Amino acid sequence: MRPTSLYPRYTEPSLVEALADSPAVLIHGPRQSGKTTLARVVGDPRGDDYISFDDNIARTAAESDPAGFVGGLRERTVLDEVQRVPSLFTALKQEIDSSRSPGRFLLTGSSQVLLVPTLSDSLAGRMEILRLHPLSQGEIHGGIPNFLDDLFSGTFPTTRTDRLGDDLAARIADGGYPAALARSPSRRASWYRNFIDTQLQRDVRDLARISTLDVMPRLLTAAASQTARLYNLSNMASPFQLSRPTIGDYVALLERLFLIDRLPPWHRNQLSRLVKTPKLHIGDTGLGCALLGVNRRALVQDRELLGQYLESFVLLELKRQSVCYDTPLEFFHYRDRDQVEVDIVIERGAREVAGVEVKAAATVKTSDFRGLWKLKKAAGQRFVAGVVAYDGEITAGFGDGMFAVPIRSLLEGRSVGLGSFVLDMNRLGA
């Protein structure tokens, strides 16, 4: 039976285009992010051209005779969770080389399968890769926000919108996994915990030989407590009776499964990025909150934790929105020798740089732009705009490409245009 998607996905138009001219297309992202549903909606219209390698019989057959398995597939086939059968990639290459018809194979993977041995060589030039994140706020609530368009145009119309208030903490704690959102708020945390217990151990077992699998959920919980902070391997390793290199390998494995993300530092000198400290971010704030046993009410009461999770939430949202854009966007953080920071730096191509500073407060002060001013000086003519994203009501300019923008507008797009409205700057806290 052909599945139906509860949510429109930003990636779907790109997937349709890729299938029209590429022999193979890979959708990769974390488990339960909606890859299978999207693949079947787009690539399996009849409902009978789908094979999952989570199925033991299919996986064993493919491992036993990869060439014969691939040769017996239909003209257009969805192959789900291909990272579980890495021996299949050479057979796929041979089949594609014999017939390069577009849309021949639609693959999904729950790990960064380009790191699987032989895959990058086997399917180089034969496969387009698309990233599917958990749901963005626009996919959940409808619409495509225009924040990134405005950011790189360097113009934000003066508008007013309602504060999110406590609803902001609710959105952070809910996260973006479709199956979790289908449950009541009180049941979502239970789903996230079960997801880690069942999925993480199976996927880790497939990717690496780890004798102490119980370390991985605890390490992921430790990472969740450090979200939006500088990555410190010594601090991460200290609670465990394992060496720092071993914990470093385990962190890399969590990153490979899309469960955490290390955000590299931005520097004018590209080579400098290789030796500086990244920031650690949890891959989904709902997952992180569940691991820490934190609900929306606890987030509202703990302002420090709310600030951490809000920063990760905004970064994740912008990454999820970025799949709508033809020009790839790259994400970084900025920190100088004086410890002046910008939470999120975005590059579009080689010529444009923008910054976003995130605040949980309802007001914005001129001093909140300090990091953005430093980033502007460092980026020079490449700098297009700087934004302080805050939980307020008014979008307003602060001069020379600097803007205060409500987080609701970042998530949902523009609200009411103010036209000749005279801003009361006291409401912004200026």
Entry keywords:
430 residues; alpha/beta; eight-stranded mixed β-sheet; five-stranded parallel β-sheet; 20 helices; 16 strands; 18% strand; globular
Tell me the layout of helices and strands.
Blueprint: H1 12-21, E1 24-28, H2 35-43, E2 50-52, H3 56-64, H4 66-71, E3 77-80, H5 88-98, E4 105-109, H6 119-122, E5 127-131, H7 137-141, H8 147-153, E6 159-160, H9 166-174, H10 178-181, H11 185-207, H12 215-225, E7 229-230, H13 233-237, H14 244-256, E8 260-263, E9 279-282, H15 285-292, H16 296-301, H17 303-321, E10 329-335, E11 341-348, E12 352-358, H18 370-379, E13 383-390, E14 394-399, E15 402-406, H19 407-412, E16 416-417, H20 425-428
Parallel strand pairs: 1-4, 1-5, 2-3, 3-4, 12-13, 13-15
Antiparallel strand pairs: 6-14, 6-16, 7-9, 8-9, 10-11, 11-12, 14-15
Helix pairs in contact: 9-15, 11-15, 12-15
